[in-house]
Amino acid sequence: MPDQSEGPTLSMPVSDRRDHIQGPPAAAVTLVEYGDYQCPYCREAYFMLAKLLPKLGDNVRLVFRNFPLTQMHPNAEHAAEAAEAAAAQGRFWEMHDMLYERQENLEDDALLTYAADDGLDADRFESEFSQRKYTDRVREDFQSGIRSGVNGTPTFFINGHRLDGPLDLESLTEAVTIAMGSHREAKSAKHHRPHA
Amino acid sequence: MKTRRSNNHPKSSPRIASGEHAASGPLQPGTAAPNFELNSTPDQKVDLIHFRGRPVILVFYPADWSPVCGDQLALYNEILAEFNKHAAQLIGISVDGSWCHTAYAQSRKLHFPLLADFEPKGAVARTYGVYDIVTGECQRALFVIDREGIIRWSYVSPTGVNPGADGILRALESLDKKKELTHA
Asked: What is the pLDDT tens value at each position of chain A, 196 positions in all?
C-alpha cells in the first residue's frame, strides 16, 4: 500500500530535451514549478521569482510545467497551450512572462494578440492553437504533477523534493539557499573522499 | 489556486483525548467500512452501500469554504476522470449542513457529492476515527474502500496540509492489480 511517510518527490525527471528551462544545466539547484496561468498565486510567484532569480545567478535554474485547474480557471488550459505553441517557435519564456503580466485577459482572442505582440509567426501560431496541437503535452505535464504530489498551484519542487509551507520571497530564498548549501557539501565530500 | 501556505484554520488538529473514539485514529486497512446514510442535498440522501461493487474514495475535510479544503476538493474535482478510470466514486464529508454544501458545490463547480455529517454532529467521522473533538470538525482524512466494502487505505493529513491525490491513485491502482490477479 502507498507510503506517504516521506515527502512527495518529482516523478518525471527534468529533461533538457522536453522541459522549458531557464538557467544553466550545471546549476546547483533546480526549481520546478507546476503552475496555472490564470492562478493569482502563480502570478505572485512569477513576480517573486523575477526578483529572486537574478540574485542567484548561475546557481539556480527554473523549470516550468503546466498544471491548469480548468474547472476553476476556464482560460487556463488554452493559455498553457498558447505558451506551448510559442515554445514551438522558440519563445516559451517570453509568452510565459506575458501571460502572467497580462493575466487580466486570457480569452482566446487576447492570446492571439499576445502571440502577434511577441513577434511570433501568427499564421503558424493560430493554426496550431486552433487545432489544439499541444493539448497532450499540457495534459502530460498535469499528469506528472498529480503523480508527484502537486496539491495546488503553484507547487514548487527543489532538487526534486516538494516545497511545503509558506510561499513568500523570504521562505523561497531560504529553501533555495539551503539546497545550494547541501549541493556544496555533497560536492566537497565527493572531492575530499579518501582513496580506498 | 492554493493557499495551503497560510494555515487559516483556527486551531491545529489536537491529539485526541483518551476515551474518545477518535483516540484510536483512522480505521485501518482490512476493516469493513462502516455503512452510513447522509444528506447530500436538503432532500437527497446517499447510502454508502449503494456504491458496493465500485471502489469508493471518502474524503473527510474540516469545513466548506476554508482555504486548504477548497484547494483539495478543487484538485480532486479536476481529476475526476482519473478516478473514473478505476470506476471509483469520490465522496466528500464534513460537518457542514446540506444547504451549505449545496452553495459551496455550486460555487466551486464540484461534480461529486458532499455529505453532511451534521446531525448527530460528526457521527460518521467518529465512527471512522477521524473526528477532531477540539475543533468540532472532521480531520483531513482519506479512505479508499474496495468493491466489497473493505477499507484498503487510510491516511490522515495535518489539517493545514493538502494531501494531494497521488496516494489515492496508488491505492486505486493497487486495488485494480489485486482484481486482475484474482481474475487471472
From this structure: 333 335 789 999 999 999 999 999 999 999 999 999 999 999 999 999 999 999 999 999 999 999 999 988 999 999 999 999 999 999 999 999 999 999 999 999 999 999 999 999 999 999 999 999 999 999 999 999 999 999 889 999 999 999 988 889 999 999 999 999 887 777 777 666 655 4
Q: Which of B16, B33, B59, B69 is catalytic?
A: B69
Q: Which three cell numbers stand for residue B72?
A: 483539495
Q: Measure the CA–CA gap between B55 and B87, rounded to whole angstroms.
A: 7
Confirm if A85 and A133 have CB atoms less than 8 A apart: yes
Contact B163 A152 (CB under 8 A): no
Expressed as residue numbers, the domain containing B88 is 21-183
Grid cell, residue B179, equals 482484481
d(CA A160, CA A29): 10
Kindly report the pTM of this predicted structure. Answer: 0.84
DSSP state of B89: E
Reported CATH class of domain A20-178: alpha beta
Interchain CB distance below 8 Å, B2 and A151: yes
| Domain at B160, CATH number | 3.40.30.10
Q: What ipTM goes with this model?
A: 0.77
Looking at the complex, report in whole angstroms how far the Cα of residue A150 sits from the nearest Cα belonging to chain B.
Answer: 6
Torsional sign, CA B177, B178, B181, B183 = negative
